[in-house]
Amino acid sequence: MVEAIRRRLVIASTALLMLALPLVADRLAMPDLVALGTQVAIYAVAAVGLDLLIGYTGLSSFGHAGFFGLGGYVVGILAFHAADGSLFLGVVPGATAAWIAWPAAILISALAALAIGALSLRTSGVSFIMITLAFAQMLFYLFVSIKTYGGDDGLGFRRRNALPWINPRDDVAFYYVCLAVLALVLAACHRLVRSRFGIVLLGIKQNERRMAAIGLDGGRYKLAVFTLAGAIAGLAGALQANLLRFVSPDMLHWTMSGDFMVMVVLGGVGTLVGPVFGAAAMVLLQSWLTQWTEHWMIVMGPVLVAVILLTRRGIWGALAGRR
Amino acid sequence: MLEVRGLKAGYGMSAVLTDISLSIGAGEVATLLGRNGMGKTTTVRAIMGMLAPRGGEIYFSGQRIDGLTSDAIARRGIGLVPEGRLIFPTLTVRENLIATAANRLGAVIPWTLPRIYGLFPRLAERAGQRGGTLSGGEQQMLAIGRALMTNPQLLILDEATEGLAPLMRDEIWRCVAGLKAAGQSILIIDKNIVALKKLADRHHIVEKGRTVWVGNRAELETAGDIVRRSLGL
């Protein structure tokens, strides 16, 4: 009971802080805080999706950045073709409206996750980690090699995707859009993990063969959640492309997949809310430490080790109790 | 309903089952008896597709099921309560029950949470508790409840009373008798011959991977030698 109140208090105060961030930034005359907050929200979206895999299904995917980058590139490529009026593959016209570009990013990432999942989920354990990594690296090299879309240098575009009633140049408005997306993704995932589907995922995580003996084909459930996580990562990628108005193969690099994993572990595996704290810790520490040294990971590494050793469920576990 | 003919199976180089045959009719309760290490659980694993048979045939509701995956076999209507119970320890009692619930074969009066709770009132009291925190007997009830929630045509109980206190055993046998009265087909693998004599319609005795004796309740009473030799009674 006390724990439940404590959890609610932590969530409420965090939500309040995030809602008030632009005001705080204004008062402290630190406008960069809004950009940092936006980055936290976007990474958190992707990390929450990854937590569905790692925390609830026991699937340690090392290819999450592949779908994140793919979502970003869908936005970038559509903007590129909209700018010069050309057609993608000679068929698809460009687009700058969010209501076209963002669902397209989600759809393409989901389809890629469906295809990659269908192949990689035939394996498990270390093989699964390696095969997801390999697929993401294939996507990385694919985009490095496509010179039309900037290759190694990436692809920039002038304006964020247009949203009704929102000025795309307004950073604070975009921050709130990202925050709203994060809230929606969290609410949807929260409902999902408490549904029968979520219970089955937990059962699969504990023992897939046991599930099969009772008549459930774990493979279909795993593929469904892998596709969903890919779709969520694609949405986060679309937001990331909008934040920077730039996409590059870095978004697809394996180190980005590693960062998402770190966010999940740091925040608290299997907690959904935890990865939001993980993303915040990662972005803020990186921003703060890079002022002192380029090798910020030297500090981040021990922090990660300490959190894993000293807490049961990451930052979330330390803040909100053990459950 | 279930017909196993000349089943052969094993692990690696060792052949555990050399010639297992058994049959269970609709609404019947049958047993698979034998000492430890004779191949009873291996038979169940082979029936459920967890171990690929090396020979023989398995028919369920007239269709051949050997070679199918375990989830496909379970979906055809076989509900397994495995040895060691194997519930999901971090899911609550309620979650354990609803995770795999299904009425694929369109049972007229399907098993629901209230019906399971009616059969095992203890589970209702512990609905929000994690499976791993239940006592052995309660976990066994949960495992049976979980299997029933798939509305199986055939229920297989593998060592359902193993390691339970006598009172808890009686509770399990009482529930099995209730299921039998309701027309549920059940295959029981157990060593508790005394309780099974009263309960089962047909018995199969297994020795070193072979079915060595098949008979009904009355025949078991008079089959002195084989019962003594195979079951140590």
In angstroms, what separates the terminal alpha carbons of chain B?
A: 30 Å
Largest interface: A-B, 17 and 26 residues
Helix content of chain A: over 70%
Structural class of chain A, by secondary structure, is: mainly alpha
User: Structural class of the helices, strands and pairings of chain B?
Assistant: alpha/beta
Shape of chain A: globular
What does this structure look like?
The complex is a heterodimer of chains A (323) and B (233). By secondary structure, chain A is mostly helical. Chain A has a single domain, classed as ABC transporter involved in vitamin B12 uptake, BtuC. Chain A has 13 helices and 4 strands. Chain A has a two-stranded antiparallel ribbon with strand order 1-2. A two-stranded antiparallel ribbon of chain A has the order 3-4. The radius of gyration of chain A is 19 Å and the shape is globular. The N and C termini of chain A lie close together (12 Å). The relative contact order of chain A is 0.18. The mean pLDDT of chain A is 92. A 6-stranded mixed β-sheet of chain B has the order 6-7-8-3-9-10, with helices on both faces. In chain B, strands 2-1-4-5 form a 4-stranded antiparallel β-sheet, with helices on one face. In chain B, strand 9 and strand 10 form a beta hairpin. In chain B, helix 3 runs parallel beside helix 6. At the A-B interface, helix 7 and helix 8 of A face helix 2 and helix 3 of B.
